[in-house]
Amino acid sequence: MENGQLAENVNVIPDFVESHRDFIVTWVPTILWVAMLCIFSTTYFTSANTLSVLSTLLQWFSPGGTPLIDPQLANMLARKMAHFSLYVGFFLILIHGPLEGRPWVALLICVVAGSLDETHQIFLPGRTPTVFDVAIDSSGAVFGCFMNAAVNEVQSVS
């Protein structure tokens, strides 16, 4: 292989990235976020598994080895906060990515995704689908919508 050919091949990657920048910036974060949502919906993240990890961490960080908070309560709170925060993030990624300027569509996609996630869990051992989790997911997306509107309002005033 000649030196000129090698140099030409090395420049292919930056050229590809530059020519596909809009796609990469718009869709890659969205695809990665959806992949993360799918991973969290697997049997690896059952309540029993997260309780086991959380109980160990609580005992490890507690003075005398006795947790300061009930591990069951901490597990439930952590799981519900995860539902909420993941869908805040999902909404914000959608609204600043592929659905820029279309907050209602992004909100609808978040609600549908949360519903599909819980429906998917019907078929997984150890997972318990609930309408309550869909409501928490949807609340997170609505909160993301309010956050986005507030930031836009502040930016328009200043």
Write structural notes for this entry:
With 158 residues, the protein is mainly α. The protein has one domain (3-157). 77% of the residues lie in helices and 0% in strands. It contains seven helices and no strands. The N and C termini lie far apart (58 Å). The mean pLDDT is 90.
Radius of gyration: 21 Å
Beta-strand content? under 5%
Poorly predicted runs:
none
Instruction: Tell me how many strands there are.
Output: 0
Number of helices: 7
Order of helices and strands: HHHHHHH
Helix fraction bin: over 70%
Mean pLDDT over the full residue set: 90
Gap from first CA to last CA? 58 Å
SS content category: mainly alpha
Largest β sheet strand count, sense and barrel closure: none
| Overall body shape | globular
- Total domain modules: 1
Topology overview:
Elements: H1 3-10, H2 12-19, H3 21-40, H4 47-61, H5 71-95, H6 103-120, H7 131-157
Helix pairs in contact: 3-5, 4-5, 5-6, 5-7, 6-7
